[in-house]
Amino acid sequence: MTSPNARPLAADPDPSEPAGADPVPPRQGRRSPAEPLLSPFVQAVPPADEVPKAARPDVKVDIRHINFFYGKFQALHDISVPLYERHVTAFIGPSGCGKSTLLRILNRIYELYPGQAATGEVMLDGENILSPGLDLNRLRAKIGMVFQKPTPFPMSIHDNIAFGIRLYENLPKSELDDRVESALRRAALWDEVKDKLRASGLSLSGGQQQRLCIARAIAIEPEVLLLDEPASALDPISTQRIEELIAELKADYCIAMVTHNMQQAARSSDYTAFLYLGELVEFDETETIFTHPKVRRTEDYITGRFG
């Protein structure tokens, strides 16, 4: 479904067609409405109107009318989108469209930088996490984040995981070690590092470092996991492991993921949001976005007509 608040965008790839004229009828040279775009990469998901009401997922994070400013420059315009419990939502769109900015709003990491500001509401379990006076340490314990480039701390593998746990909890050593092992197992890294836990986290390969960062994020038992292009700097084998890990983790977390890889978005997510020039163009189930998008600009982007 399209955002009810999305405005017409300035740079429509097809100037002959008025902005907002969606859906559009097929033209010569276009695919037929029944022809899927990337169906080999997508698991079948029933249309939203065919899903029984009781089966619809619960909203974990409700993003409402978000605007974001870098000084006087407005980077996001009136974004409203839900993030569902135990589901993966992928944010796609060209570089500079605001995907990563939106993720950084969700744990208020943007506040580390002067001159940046957000307006609107982000509701987490009914609480507006943009409210003044909110305990940011408590917020970031609930919303973990993994960045595009692996960021292991310059300390041992064990202490990389234990660092966050020690920050929020005072556990006996045996219980702390159990939590470290559990996080490494869930990140599919334990078998590779169990005999060198005192080695530096920086000694691991790129793919291992990224899984270490995921283990570090989930070790504090958050409720939401933000992944900002988690596999963009990795080789295909490491990327596959990250995607398999995402599929396992969504059983326990609400996951929001930024990616430039269309096939990865189609494989790994349940819902997809397409952003362009700081506005939400379309949001729907991933199967719908990648097989029968309602907005022509969405189809043009995912089929490579522009980007």
Task: Characterize the structure shown.
- By secondary structure, this protein is α/β, with parallel strands linked by helices.
- It has a domain at 84-108 and 133-302: P-loop containing nucleotide triphosphate hydrolases (Rossmann fold).
- It is 30% helix and 22% strand.
- It has a 6-stranded mixed beta sheet, sandwiched between helices.
- Helix 6 (206-219) packs parallel to helix 7 (236-249).
- The longest helix is centred in the middle third of the chain and has 14 residues, at 173-186.
- The chain is globular, with a radius of gyration of 20 Å.
- The two termini are 21 Å apart.
- The model is unreliable at 1-36 and 38-54 (pLDDT under 50).
